[in-house]
Structures are given as C-alpha cells and as structure tokens.
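Hi everyone, sorry if this is the wrong subforum. Our group has a chain we'd like a structural model of before ordering constructs, and none of us has done structure prediction before. Sequence below.
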Amino acid sequence: MDARVQSYIEGVDPAYRPLFDRMHRLIMAAHPDADVVLSYQMPTYKVRKRRLYVGVWQHGISLYGWGRGRDGGFAKRHPDLLAGKGTIRLRPQDADALADEELSSLVSAALEA
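Answer:
Right subforum, don't worry. Here is the predicted structure as tokens:
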C-alpha cells in the first residue's frame, strides 16, 4: 500500500476508523488485486480502468467514483444515503444497518470491468 495512503488511514478519526476498515476489508476481499493509492487526497481503489474513492469526513465516510448505473442498485435501495450525484455518505449508524453483502454488491458493481 502506498505510504501516503497508510498515513491517511493512520490519521482517520477513531470514531470512523472501524467503518473505514470495514469498507477497506470489503473492497480488498472483492478485489485483492486492487491498487490502493491516494487521489484527490483520499484513498482510491483502482482495478483496471475503474476507481472507487473512499474519503473520511465529519459524518463518516463517502464513496465516489462509480459510473452511472454501476452501483448494483444500491442507490435505488438506499436513496437516503445519496448525497448528490455519484456520492454515497455513510455514517456509522447507517453502515451498522447494512449487511456486508449489501456493501459488497456496491463495490463489485463499481469496480467490475
């Protein structure tokens, strides 16, 4: 993992670190070949031409970067988690209500070729 990404992760607010770690684990389980780099000052998971950005903010984490229709139906099932076009905001309590399989389907759809 890129040293800048590791530094970013080490600096994540402890209140959001479990959520970030869960998302990281799910992404890497689905795509163990993903390169993890820092882009736009946030960890970015690269699989071939696809990108998924995971940023930690004051509310929790935000996910960005999938193309139109490449969310596996996540946005339709959880419209309350959308924060504008192409952004999903997850607070810890939101993520607690979601099964790993639900988040994994988003990851898979976003990063599949």
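For your construct planning: Residues 3-108 form a domain with the Aspartate Aminotransferase, domain 1 fold (CATH 3.90.1150.200). The mean pLDDT is 92.
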